[in-house]
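Translate structure to sequence.
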């Protein structure tokens, strides 16, 4: 059995490496996607365009405007002279925020009263608007505290001192790039395994494999193991790029990380074999792979928290192996998890791997009859 499986594995590797299109799928797109996601995908805001409507025109108001303009988060692009201009600037998307300083701003500061400042944001993108408000509130609080310190005003009774564990700089790349490890590993494994049987069907050689002494289990192993090896290799390359190119710290143990990655790849390979055993052509296999990948990424917690989803959708995510892989990979990058703490994720991925491989084997036997 082992000799037959090994021969099929070698055959599968040769088929992948000899095909120019397959080589390009393995090398080009993952590196391109890693660069694009690594640099472009971010929850942080920089150079947010804003306009100023300063009705006070005092030293204090100019200092506040300077604090905003000097921040790397904001970029001043216009000074407004009437309230009517505010809506036009927001509607035209020239700015995402307007800083409206009340004419009583400096007088109230000198009187130790709350000084009114209005922040008007473009709420068409609610996530961006909330981030802009958070940054603006931080600058206004810092400016008012500095004013009180310089002019002998009353200090605030309580002061918030934030401290973030695991990601002290709150750099969103530390959250996104480890997720890319799971995302690209899933893409490569699905494509390699999903195209394996479909490629042979198009070439007319799959029927020849079926009439050999190989059992459906032998064919299943011979088709899945190359995908597992390639998936682990691609995952390792992405992990190295995340650590040494993008500077994301890998704090947890490599054994915990690779144990989770291996289980994840096995479960994805099973899904790829299910797709491949059903598809008659490589085009159908590609379509099936992408039909699975898009919902799998959305329902994994890659970009949006699963807790924010409806209860029914949260239950649906339990069938998604990427959900558990993201927990393992992100914890291994930013935390120091023990094997015991990751058992729920390992168990879920192992169970999904057994189910997907079993169903794939049943489909192979059905097609072989």
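Result:
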């Amino acid at each position: 059995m082992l000799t037959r499986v090994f021969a099929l594995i070698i055959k599968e590797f040769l088929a992948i490496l000899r095909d120019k299109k397959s080589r390009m799928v393995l090398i080009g797109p993952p590196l391109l996607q890693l660069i694009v996601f690594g640099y472009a995908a971010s929850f942080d805001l920089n150079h947010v365009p804003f306009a100023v409507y300063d009705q006070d025109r005092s030293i204090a108001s100019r200092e506040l405007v300077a604090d905003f303009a000097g921040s790397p988060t904001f970029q001043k692009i216009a000074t407004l002279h009437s309230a009517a201009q505010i809506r036009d600037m927001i509607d035209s998307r020239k700015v995402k925020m307007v800083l409206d300083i009340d004419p009583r701003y400096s007088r109230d500061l000198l009187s130790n009263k709350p000084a009114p400042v209005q922040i008007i944001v473009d709420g068409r993108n609610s996530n961006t608007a909330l981030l802009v408000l958070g940054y603006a509130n931080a600058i206004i609080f810092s400016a008012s505290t500095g004013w009180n310190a310089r002019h002998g005003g009353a200090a605030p009774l309580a002061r918030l001192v934030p401290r973030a564990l695991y990601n002290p700089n709150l750099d969103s790349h530390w959250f996104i790039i480890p997720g890319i490890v799971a995302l690209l590993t899933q893409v490569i494994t699905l494509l390699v395994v999903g195209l394996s049987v479909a490629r042979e069907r198009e070439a007319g050689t799959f029927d020849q494999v079926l009439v050999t002494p190989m059992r459906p289990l032998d064919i299943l192993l011979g088709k899945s193991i190359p995908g597992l090896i390639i998936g682990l290799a691609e995952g390792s390359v992405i992990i190295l790029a995340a650590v040494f190119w993008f500077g994301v710290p890998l704090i947890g143990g490599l054994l915990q990380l690779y144990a989770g990655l291996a289980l994840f790849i096995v479960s994805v390979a099973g899904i790829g074999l299910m797709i491949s055993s059903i598809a008659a052509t490589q085009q159908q296999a590609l379509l099936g792979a992408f039909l699975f990948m898009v919902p799998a990424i959305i329902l994994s917690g890659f970009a949006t928290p699963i807790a924010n989803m409806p209860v029914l959708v949260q239950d649906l995510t339990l069938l998604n192996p990427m959900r558990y892989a993201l927990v393992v990979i992100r914890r291994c990058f930013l935390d120091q998890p023990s094997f015991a703490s990751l058992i729920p994720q390992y168990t879920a991925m192992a169970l999904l791997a057994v189910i997907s491989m079993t169903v794939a084997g049943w489909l192979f036997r059905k097609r072989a009859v």
